[in-house]
Amino acid sequence: MNNITKQSFMEKKSMSQDLVTLIKQQILNGELNPGDRIVETKVAKELGISQTPVREAVRMLSGEGIINIVPNRGPIVKEIEERDIFEIYSLRASLEGLAMRLTTLHASKEQIQLLVDLYAEMESKLHNPEVDSLLKESLYLHHSIIQFSRHSRLMQIYDSISFQIELVNRIIGMKSTKQKEFDEHKELIDALRKGNPDESERVMRRHIHRSFKECIKALQDNGSADRTDISKLWPEENE
């Protein structure tokens, strides 16, 4: 592969990745909704590019389970169903439960203190009327626990579902009060301070399972749930 061809290939690859990011942003901010069709020719024309990187971006999004390729219709933004929530959150519980265990075992005192400080920051914003939500701080706390696990493959897999977690929250209208976010993360910090890896893992899995149940309830309240009793696939986490 000569330099010109190689450069062209890299530019197309980078362009496709940029398009993936753009389309994800459009989905999260509501410009694209479940069931909407992505017209490759329209996207290419609007951006002034060829269809090749658009087609590659669609392929990548399909591989992530964000869009479906429907015969005679083309790429469609995927609808969120109960099964999707089960798969995303059960995987999240396994990943974050393991991350919590490893962080409890291997994190330095400075890293544990950083997590404690992050929680203290949440408390400082709890009664600040200018702060509407603690979801950003909550997300950062979870990501920090993932990073402190020192498990590179776990981090990669978690990154691959992070967007889908945000997507679920956006589509089914998940809302959480500041007090709720603060209260539910206290048990995580307490477990880390105690230093018992078994307890830490259990606490995290219960924490994620509660979020799973809230997502299912929100989907049911929106009238979008199917008839499958998904709770049988993932019973209550043991205390």
Describe the structure.
With 239 residues, the chain is mainly alpha-helical. The chain has helices at residues 3-28, 40-47, 51-63, 82-106, 109-126, 135-148, 152-171, 178-194, 197-221; strands spanning 67-70, 74-77. The chain folds into two domains: 3-77, Arc Repressor Mutant, subunit A (Orthogonal Bundle); 82-233, Four Helix Bundle (Hemerythrin (Met), subunit A) (Up-down Bundle). A hairpin with a 3-residue loop joins strand 1 and strand 2. Helix 1 crosses helix 3 and helix 4 (82-106) packs antiparallel against helix 9 (197-221). The radius of gyration is 20 Å and the shape is globular. It starts with a helix and ends in an 18-residue tail after the last helix. Residues 1-7 have low confidence and may be disordered. It holds the Pfam family GntR.
CATH class of the largest domain: Mainly Alpha
How many DSSP helices?
A: 9
Main sheet: strand order: 1-2
The CATH architecture designation of the largest domain is Up-down Bundle
Number of domains: 2
Overall structural class, as computed from helix and strand content, comes to mainly alpha
Share of helical residues: 55-70%
Amino- and carboxy-terminal Cα gap:
59 Å
Question: What is the molecular shape?
Answer: globular
Number of strands: 2
What pattern of helices and strands is seen along the backbone? HHHEEHHHHHH
CATH 4th-level superfamily of the largest domain: GntR ligand-binding domain-like
What is the CATH fold-level name of the largest domain? Answer: Four Helix Bundle (Hemerythrin (Met), subunit A)
Average of per-residue pLDDT values: 87
Q: Which residue ranges are poorly predicted, with pLDDT under 50 across at least 5 consecutive positions?
A: 1-7
